[in-house]
Amino acid sequence: MTPDAEAALASKAWPFQEAEKLVKRFETAPPEKGYALFETGYGPSGLPHLGTFGEVVRTTMVRHAFSVLSDIPTKLICFSDDMDGLRKVPDNVPNKELLTDALGKPLTQVPDPFGTHGSFGEHNNARLKAFLDQFGFDYDFYSATECYASGRFDATLLKILGCYDKVINVILPTLGEERRQTYAPFLPVSPQTGRVLQVPLIAHDAEAGTISFADEDGTETTLPVTGGQVKCQWKVDWAMRWDALDVDYEMAGKDLIESIKLSSIIRRILGGQPPEGFAYELFLDEKGEKISKSKGNGLTIEEWLAYASPESLSLYNYQAPRKAKRLYFDVIPKAVDEYYQFAAAYDGQEPEKRFTNPAYHIHSGPPPAHDLPVSFSLLLNLVGAAHTDDKAVLWGFVSGYVAEAGPDTHPELDRLMGYALKYYEDFVAPNKRYRAADARERAAMADLVARLKALPANAEPEAIQYEVYEAGKGQEFESLRDWFKALYECLFGQPQGPRMGSFIALYGIDATIRLLEKAAAGEVLS
């Protein structure tokens, strides 16, 4: 094992812990296919969403970690279950009548309501690929329709038919009595209507490779299980895919733990080893409820990217994947600032620490260097104090804080300013609640004004911070937290705020004095 691999394992970062499972999987022999196969799944009845991103980005992190530990080549498949029958008409599509007439048909046989592709499935597949390409993911796209129709799955489908009783007996104990009477691992595609049918089988013939069932008009029909004329039920389908493609790693949401168990049993019945992987926790909305596509609660990926960078979103997915986390707008500023803190720390860290640095996993290696003298949170406060929606105004303050700084010298900060202006307008400004200072707070503010006037214009943030503390101590607040809370509520209209020394250095001592003088006079700022 290389020194890098040893340091990576010693780091205990979760992608390396996951990758180590694959290293152990191949201890006795490398995979016969010549590479380790990672898979993620996508249901194209809807558009790609944050869950799709999270699964691909986390799997990519494990894939890279494995490449550090092993010289076995890797491959990532993003699999679209586009042969699934359309169960209901989505609310967010035009021309709904086109879909109403196609209920039950495979998604690749459903007309595209947007009129841009040959089918609804193809439309959503194109959106998925554009979505993945936007983030630069390295993947191969697989369509269920193509895999079934091309014969790629034929050998495994015949294997399932040969183990029919064993396979069905894995699923039946998990079903209610009524569903047991109708369940079959194969869903035939009706030759008459083209719909994917949920019907009991009249007979199955492993030697002939066929199943028999009553079609929608009651006609007894026999079809081969090969050539795309049937589709497997969900849990059987997952195991079938693992077997046919020889998948080595696939993670899934915690809500699929029971499905993973059943599909794993079926994979073993078929003579293979289930893939490695883990069950990640699901995101929650601002009320602590599970995010649901049908409810539309929580945050969409487009919304996150309107206010922050893709790297911050990757960080939020990296952190504590087995812990349920709120996914709402108020988590964005912290994620943005933490990403840049991790990226900035990387170069100065020892090798083992670098492997625990989230920025390393986000970039599949050393992160880019950014000269970012101002944090996102500080920018938000600057926007509020300056009462501006203009980047040029913000650069005016920053250039006074960092000599000759501008969009050309600090492009990453310029990008961050754009995010900060939009986030402030939509989420900070509407929730501001300024108040007047009480007598003790006014006295402390007046004292702070005097202290700031005694400082040089280019005073360091730490020197300014010291004077802020001293002004609060002079009024004997029960806790200095109350003093800082008063500054935040009176100056910024919010209960929390920036480190005051850093803010004052950025905003300017003279400009801050003007704010404090108004507040010390009892004015309510707005």
What's the gist of this structure?
The protein is mainly alpha-helical and 526 residues long.
Tell me the layout of helices and strands.
Layout: H1 3-11, H2 14-25, E1 36-42, H3 50-69, E2 74-80, H4 96-100, H5 120-134, E3 140-143, H6 144-150, H7 154-162, H8 164-171, H9 177-182, E4 186-188, E5 201-205, E6 210-214, E7 220-224, E8 230-232, H10 234-245, E9 252-253, H11 257-269, E10 279-280, E11 283-284, H12 301-307, H13 310-318, E12 325-326, H14 332-345, H15 351-356, H16 358-362, H17 376-386, H18 391-401, H19 411-428, H20 439-453, H21 461-473, H22 480-492, H23 500-507, H24 509-520
Parallel strand pairs: 1-2, 2-3, 9-10, 11-12
Antiparallel strand pairs: 4-8, 5-6, 6-7
